[in-house]
Amino acid sequence: MDGLTKVDSVKKVHHQRTCFLCRHKHDAAAMLRLVVDSDGEIWPDVLHKAPGRGSYLCMETGCLARLNDRSIARLKRHFPILKANKALLLQRFNAAFSLQAERSLSRLLITAALGRDAVMHRMWHHAPLLVIVTDQSGQALQRQMVDAVEKRRNDGKKVELWLDFDADMLAKVSKREKISVVAVRYCKDVMRLQQFSTWLDQVKEAG
Question: Which one, out of 63, 103, 113, 134, has a CA that is 20 to 30 A from the CA of 200?
């Protein structure tokens, strides 16, 4: 993601949890909760709503790099029946993060400006914006969006630019064969989209 930093889901620290791998404390809302079912299968609880006891993973790159069957087995002290399987767990991560990213994007697209002309028109609005440019867009369009975003910033308007967004995800969610650029109002769903997209990239690297 160009022009974006890693997003913490919650600005204020309400509850902290300890990552089961690095043993460091983090804001729970910025971590991934893991739960184990009655068959010993481990699942990502991305919304932190599943009943019962859970463990937490900080999702930092270093911890994901250390994730393997042996390190996952540390959770057996809390869940004796747990089945440690890194490959399967990463598949579940990928499916869960993709679903949440797509849901957040779907809500954002309801009021989004789609396509270059609509995005350029939306730039005149005062509301905070996120401009998303896909990884299949041409260099000319990317340069145009970079210039437009810089001009908007110089005018004192809040705008973030996200280059190289997954074009296939955007096409799937928007139900359009091809779309290269959109502008959405900056809100909570933007932060969720950023978080789950970041986690998706990290899971791909860890795999």
Answer: 113
Separation in Å, CA 62 to CA 21, 22, 52, 157, 202: 10, 9, 28, 36, 10
Domains and CATH numbers, the chain: 16-84 (3.30.1230.10), 106-187 (3.30.1330.30)
pTM for the structure as a whole? 0.85
Work out the angle between the directed axes of helices 86-109 and 188-206 (0-180°, nearest 10): 150
Q: Tell me 90's DSSP state.
A: H
Angle (nearest 5°) at CA 31 between 103 and 81: 100
Say if residues 155 and 126 touch (Cβ distance below 8 Å): no
When mean pLDDT is compared across 5-9, 42-46, 68-72, 114-118, the lowest value belongs to 5-9
Read off the tokens for 11.
Answer: 């600005």
